[in-house]
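To: structure desk
From: M.T.
Subject: fold request, one chain
Message: Could you run this one when you get a chance? Sequence is below, nothing fancy, just the single chain.
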Amino acid sequence: MLMTNSPEIQRTAAPGERAGPHSTRHAPRVDPAVESLQAAVHCMGSPQLAQMILNSVGDAVLALDAQGRIVGCNPAASALLKCPEGALLQRDAAELLLGLSEPSEQTSEIENPIGATLRDARPRRRHGASLLDADGNWLPVDFVCAPMLGNDGSVAGGVLSFSDASARIAAEQVRSTELRTLELVASGAPLDRILDEIARGLELMFPDSTAAIMLLDPDGVHLRTANAPNLPAPFTQMVDGLVIGPEAGSCGSAIYLRQPVVVADIAIDPRWVNYREMALQFDLRACWSLPVIGHDGTGLGSTALYFKEVREPSSSEYAAIAYFVPLIAIAVERHRKEQALLISEERLRCVVDASVDAVRDWDLRSNVMWWNRREDCDIGFPEDGAETPRAAWSERIHPDERDAVLSSVQAALEGREDFWQARYRFQRRDGEYSHVSDRAVILRDGEGAPMHMIGGVSDVTEQIRMEEQLNQSQRMDSIGQLTGGIAHDFNNLLTVILGNAELLQEMTRNNHSLRDLAGIISTAAQRGAELTQRLLAFARRQALEPTSVDTQAMVEDLLSVLKRLLGAEIAMEFSCATGTSPALADRPQLENALLNLCINARDAMPDGGQLSVRIRDAVLDEHHCERHPDVKPGRYVMLTVSDTGSGILPAHLPRVFEPFFTTKPMGKGTGLGLAMVYGFVKQSHGHVEIHSEPGAGTSVSLFLPFAEHPIESAGPNVNRPDTTPGRGKILLVEDDALVLKYAAGQLQLMGYEVTTASNGPEAIVLVERGLQFDLLFTDVIMPGGMTGVELAGKVRSLRPGTPVLFTSGYTENAMLQQGRIPAGTHLLSKPYRRADLALRLEQALAGGPRFPIGLASN
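Reply: Done. Structure tokens follow.
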């Protein structure tokens, strides 16, 4: 019931306004509750009407006397304060409110707004004050205090109207958190900072709660704790990585079911059966969880509020929590897009870095170029990642190629092309030039005008070098195949010429003039044989017998010969590193190679000079062999011959190993010396390197394989046939008709019985028919689908112990251990003299079959 001690109260007057009902000035707008109270006061003659007016006011209203004591209240005030009306009367209203004090406008003293209003008659409004109810709890309120003036204009009392501010404060907190979250998202803040802001915002709204945000792994199965600043660490660790499902607590169930899961009491809820004990251990009794779903329906995670008491959310509390869920989704999706973008950019950067050395974007309108950041790129710019004028690129193109490159660029831009490429020399950071491959895409506007030229520059210096080396190797192989084929056929002819010349010499023994003519033919044929032997050496088709060679002892044995060869004007120096390993090589051929190198060095020093021969062990590693694909990494013995002569021009270096190429004056060289050395070393599975500068001399290094074990000759054959020289039967197999006729005649003159065959299959037929013979004499390379090596293997399988003598102009790599004749194999090289033939036949018949059976399948 409303009570008052001043019945002559009228409406509130504004400061400076003359009090009275007939004032023409408008009073400031006050709270509706105050107006209602004023209306009720004016109806004091009718208490029932006054009470009806106050009861209709939704806010709580207290009537105050001039001293600020409560003299009346409406039911809303009684309910909010949890106190009966009678218990409120005569209490000082200021005691019920906290945070009302403020500095006085007249003095520096601190006073509350109620007292200030009762003194100066000015209404005051306050937000966020705290009201003490009868239970001792502080409730946030907003209030208005207005004066009530008497007829004489003095302050007779006041009206205090207040309302619960909890909803407003909560809404402001939600809005503030939302704004801060969106600002963080927009600024690209880390995801954990954004989620921490949201979690703390939830905890501000629910001071007795603990917030947690969990995110779903990309596998869509496991939940990870993304943010839980105040959740006990052991509990956080336990639930981190939990598998979602219908019994995975509130968070795991919510994202699994795609719907909110509100657990008011963890102790009895079946969804917490696997985690209940740990939750209760940390006094977590209730958990409200909502799923976080992306805009495309993708499950992202869950958010949860934990309470230490059994509790269900009100509709307003649930709405407040739900308000934060879209913010979490926005933050997570933004983060994942940024991560995907970063991964995409990193992948693109890796692809670019792997495919090209430098990337540029040429803005054709501003004529400025942007270059990527590659600190390890020698063709990049000192400040990669920065924009540079176009001239910074064009000025580094080699002067000899600059005009051509810029002209091709201009032609592409003026035309309709969308792609441009070129190869040119470009200056590196160190000032040297590299060969580069430049490729670019031209971006044009809608009218076809070029806007950007985006491309990549790759250093292809090594690639070009490898291409040149490959071309050189292929050219050398082609020359070798041609040379070897010619030499093989030539040797067949020389065999006939040389043999018949010998016969003529014997037949014209008493005719000196004819005998001399036959001798000239024989000498010419012999010189032709020497020439073809060098050609076969270059073609790697000569017969080699590699053994373990002590290179130091070999050179020392040749020193006296070398010094006489060089003459007194050339000083010779020889050195060998201590403990140098033996080399795996054919010693006579290695000696011949060394002699050829020394002769070339002598010819390069007509006025004298210094020649050095050095031997040491060397290791060719993977890096070295990458630049020389035909070389295998491993241990080698390196023999180097160096001179101080005239040197070789760079343009001639790639051709020095080609046959018939020479830098010597006309008539001073055949051009086969270095070719023979090259072929011998390559056939020995070695490597050759040459370094030369005009006026500074030349150095040639031979890398020969390291000999791990000495090569042993095959032992004597226990099934040696019982034959004597010139007595026995021979199966002769030769595809060249002239050579076959000549060889058969020579064998018959020596007293042998001869059966001939023109190829391997024909010979096998004879053997299978029971032909009796004491030795197989066969060419190595023959038509008919069977080589001499295969024929020998087949004969040995049919007639074990049969001796074999091979003859050949050359021996191909694939036939005998990649070009090597095995130690102990009987081989007669074409062209051959009758004496050589007789000796090799005698050795083969006396020593038995030295041809290894195992090679028949090679």
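Reply (cont.): Residues 136 and 713 are 115 Å apart (CA to CA). Let me know if you need anything else for the meeting.
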